[in-house]
Amino acid sequence: MLAFLACKDIESAWISAENRAVATLHPSGMIKLVFSPTDKKLLGAHIIGEQASELIHIASHVMLAGGPIDAFIDAVYNYPTLSDSYQYAAYDGLEKHAKWTEEQTKK
User: Fold this and answer.
1) Could you give the CA distance from residue 11 to residue 42 in angstroms, rounded to a whole number?
2) What DSSP state is assigned to residue 74?
3) Which of these, 36, 30, 7, lies nearest to 94 by C-alpha position?
4) Per the domain annotation, does 107 fall within a domain?
5) What is Dmax (Cα atoms) for the chain?
6) Domain residues for 84?
7) Residue 96 domain-assigned?
8) What is the model's pLDDT at position 7?
9) Any idea what the Cα angle at residue 12 is, between residues 65 and 87, rounded to 5°?
């Protein structure tokens, strides 16, 4: 478990930013993506909110395929849908990954 904690990066997107969440009157929730900073492989996901059971299968599919966090960026989601929140979380995570990579190269 210590190795897992040492090599993860966490990023989350608040579902309240999504137009679909506001339109369906369920404007609160969160998607948190856990991925390895070395290869960006998705290690886990947490979803909190009214429609969590409708969203978690997307992360499960990426994990079963051994996919990276980039898979959410490359995917095409209907708009407006709650699944689009994955892209926001992934973009935030990739921004943190870029900063982490830059720090590693300075060492």
Assistant:
1) 11
2) H
3) 36
4) no
5) 48
6) 2-102
7) yes
8) 38
9) 55
Q: Report how far residue 58's alpha carbon sits from residue 79's, in angstroms, rounded to the nearest whole number.
A: 16
CA distance 28 to 21: 7
Lowest average pLDDT, out of 4-8, 31-35, 87-91, goes to 4-8
Average pLDDT over residues 55-75: 93
Spatial strand order of the sheet with 9-14 comes to 9-14, 29-35, 42-49
43's tokens: 């290690």
Cβ partners under 8 Å of residue 10, min gap 6:
32, 33, 34, 93
Compute the distance between CA of residue 107 and CA of residue 104 in angstroms, rounded to an integer: 5
What's the CATH code of the domain at 57?
3.30.390.30
